[in-house]
Every structure is written in C-alpha cells, then in structure tokens.
Amino acid sequence: MFGKAELLEAIAGKNRGILATPTDKQAILAAIAQLEDHNPTPNPLRSPEKLAGNWRLLYTTSQELLRIDQVPLLKLGQIYQFINPSLAQIYNIAEVLGLPFLEGIVSVVARAGL
After folding, report:
1. 55 and 34 within one domain
2. How many whole angstroms separate alpha carbon 13 and alpha carbon 108?
3. Quick one: average pLDDT of 19-23?
4. Are residues 20 and 66 in the same domain?
5. Rounded mean pLDDT, 20-42
6. For a pLDDT cut of 90, what percent of the chain falls above it?
7. Structural contact between residues 106 and 96, judged by C-beta atoms closer than 8 angstroms
8. Are residues 50 and 103 in the same domain?
C-alpha cells in the first residue's frame, strides 16, 4: 500500500514533473491512484468544498505549466492552484523567474470551470 510518505518520495527530485521520465510518471500516477483508494471521504465528488483554497503543487502533469521552463531565460518557479468550488473556478498560477526586473512576477496560466 502506498501512503503519503511514499508518494512524496516518488515525486522528490522530479522538479514538479519537469524531470519525470515516462517510467517515473507511470509510477507516480499509480501511487496517486493507490492513495486515492484510501480517501476517508466516502464520495469525494460530492464534497468539493474540501478542495477549496490555495494549494502549492508539488507535482503536475500539465505540459502547459511545465513548458514554461523550456522558454529561454525563464525558469519555472512555484506553481499554485486556487480552487473555489462555490464559483466553479480553478486557477493555475505559476511563478516565472529569470528576467531581470521581472523576477517574482506571477502569471495566471490557466482557468477552468469545475
């Protein structure tokens, strides 16, 4: 059985997914699925309010976010996700680092309805 510690170990060193190989990705997704099986919330899809908040992403499969690191002179900083179930909104927010005088500027990368 995979637990949180095992999942965190699996994603360690993967730079939010940038350095994950196809084998790593497969193992990480399997670990996530196993952890989801032990969710104490009986029907998580009926409890979206539990997702509400601002989250720092430790791992993502979003190529839209991960490709930021491939742009010359840019480095992908932290990635955050704002979830507001009551308004059916999700925002992915990425720190973009590397340009002089613009370091720390945060750009909203994607918006999706729940």
Report:
1. no
2. 25
3. 96
4. no
5. 91
6. 54
7. yes
8. yes
- The model's pTM: 0.78
- Same domain, yes or no: 94 and 60: yes
Element at 94 (helix H, strand E) = strand 89-97
Residues 88 and 114: their CA atoms lie apart, in Å, by 5
Q: CA-CA-CA-CA torsion for 19, 114, 94, 24, nearest 10 degrees?
A: -10
Claim to verify: residue 51 and residue 100 sit in the same structural domain: yes
Write the CB contacts of 113 (distance below 8 Å, at least 6 apart in sequence): 88, 89, 90
The residue range of the domain holding 9 is: 1-38
Confidence of residue 101 (pLDDT cuts 50, 70, 90): low
60/112 same-domain check: yes
- pLDDT at residue 24, as a whole number: 95
The answer to whether residues 53 and 26 belong to one domain is: no
Tell me the CA distances in angstroms from 43 to 37, 47, 82, 106, one per residue in order: 11, 7, 22, 34
CA distance 82 to 107: 13
Q: Domain count for the chain, please give it.
A: 2
Measure CA of the first residue to CA of the last residue in the chain; give whole Å. Answer: 30
